[in-house]
Amino acid sequence: MKEISSSEFEKEVLAGGKVVLDFYSTECPPCEAVAPKFEGLATLYGKEVKFLKMFRQQNKPLAESLGVRSSPTLLFFDNGVQSPVSLSGGIKRSDIIRQLDHMLPQERVQEIKKEIKPTVSEFDVLILGAGPGGLTAGLYLCQSKVNTVLVDIALPGGQVSTTHEVSNYPGFIDPQPGYMLSHNMSEQTKQCGTIYKVAVDVTKVDLEKKEVVIDEFETIKAKKIIIATGTSPNLMGIPGEKEMKGKGISYCATCDAKYYGDKEVVVIGGGNSAVEEADFISRFASKITMVHQFDALTANKQAQEKLLANPKINVLFSHEPRSFIREGDKLITEVENLKTKSLTKLSGDGVFVFIGMKPNIDLFRDKLELDNWGYIKTNEDMQTSMPGIYAVGDVISKKYRQITTAVADGTIAAIAIAKELN
Fold it and tell me: Which domains does the chain have, with CATH numbers?
């Protein structure tokens, strides 16, 4: 693997045959996450594909001319022709492999696959999930000199990293951008010494053996496991939702609100998340129609008062969405009046859905005792029904799900485990 500059681009890339080029930056956690994957795949595919790196900040004009706007970004070239597919952000090993495989004959791909050797690593504690609960557990464990690894299918931070503003986290007088709060948590835990394996594919979780397989080839063994997998947005399951997801329907205002400047959007929901995120979206959109199934909003009173005073926002009470249809450049939300049963079509440019969350437990749903809503039951030490398995954060059964309660859960689990191991 070689690092190049803009002056070498034509020779090394355009005239270099099959090439994958990594535009990276310094002080970039996603870049740090992709680096070992990139280097590891270079040893497998290096005879067929040239692996190159370029420092984006020092080669910005070239990067921008190639459509690179963030770090890391991987570009793929075949005999000077750039692939329309690029990878950026929390890049998974499987995503890189998929693109590399497209560049090679199938028989050669099969030969390379045979060269992949399974690996095994061992730790005292394995944390599944890098949100506030998992990060806090990792911090306390590494400070207790407990050998800990943190595994996540995405980048560290959890849902906090997609929250536009956090105003109630102790220690900060001014509201904090969610991404910065989660970044600081992550950096603190990383600098302490916790090992990170993030933006990976979790292939298998065996709670009995306390083993987790990532990226199909690496088995991680531990004495204890902390489940901190959090929650995911609920889906409505109505016609058009699946087809329009990411194509007009979004579940993250921080991620996508900026794309709706001076446009009209529909917001589904009426709880705290829906009300707070609608207020944020109103910084960009010209008009917002909220669709709520009840006669009144269920968010806290202060948030309600702020929203109802916002001239950009209109609330449609006692209505539920029934389908989504694309008509030209407009996304039509068909809603039903729950009292009259009549249907109405709302025309807009996009839809944001905030109707609650569900626990991420698919890989071990049948192994642990759950409450009536599918959340993991724990005792006061965050122990689950299975020996040596703990759970923290939004994935557990509890009354309140906040950043502060997740941090508390992680603290409790880590202290309990450290005392037991020592």
Answer: 2-114 (3.40.30.10), 119-232+357-421 (3.50.50.60), 241-353 (3.50.50.60)
